[in-house]
Write a structure and sequence with these properties.
The protein is mainly alpha-helical. The protein contains five helices and no strands. It has two domains: 50 residues, no CATH class; 55 residues. The longest helix is centred in the last third of the chain and has 30 residues. It is extended. The two termini are 31 Å apart.
């Protein structure tokens, strides 16, 4: 069953994608770091996050191959930096735990089918 879009009035309409991105860019600043980006993201409201998730496919920021290459290089630099490494380590730990849970669930389901 498809979920209905939330009902909004003119007084409580959700922010536009462009407004959320603009505020996020202001929070991050001109010389971004991993910590600044994380802190900025934590300052987004639930409505802001919902807008970003819902609209992201219509707003791909990387278009040219050069932009994609630059992003990949900077992502590697940031994730391997002293500042970024703890976040990557934590995300890896969580991803590993989720993968184990998925494997366990699938194995349980497969064993039911074998019976």
């Amino acid at each position: 069953m498809a979920s209905a879009s939330p009902m909004y009035t003119s007084n409580d309409a959700p922010p536009s994608y462009e407004d959320v991105v603009r505020r996020l860019n202001v929070l991050i600043g001109d010389n971004p770091t991993a910590s600044m980006a994380l802190e900025a993201a934590q300052n987004l409201s639930d409505a802001d996050v919902e807008v970003l998730v819902r609209e992201h496919e219509n707003h791909y920021p990387l278009i040219t191959e050069e932009e994609k290459k630059t992003f990949a290089v900077n992502l590697c630099r940031t994730s391997s930096s002293t500042e970024g490494a703890p976040h990557i380590k934590e995300a890896s730990k969580v991803a590993s735990e989720v993968a184990k849970e998925i494997t366990l669930t699938l194995n349980q389901q497969f064993s039911k089918f074998k019976k």
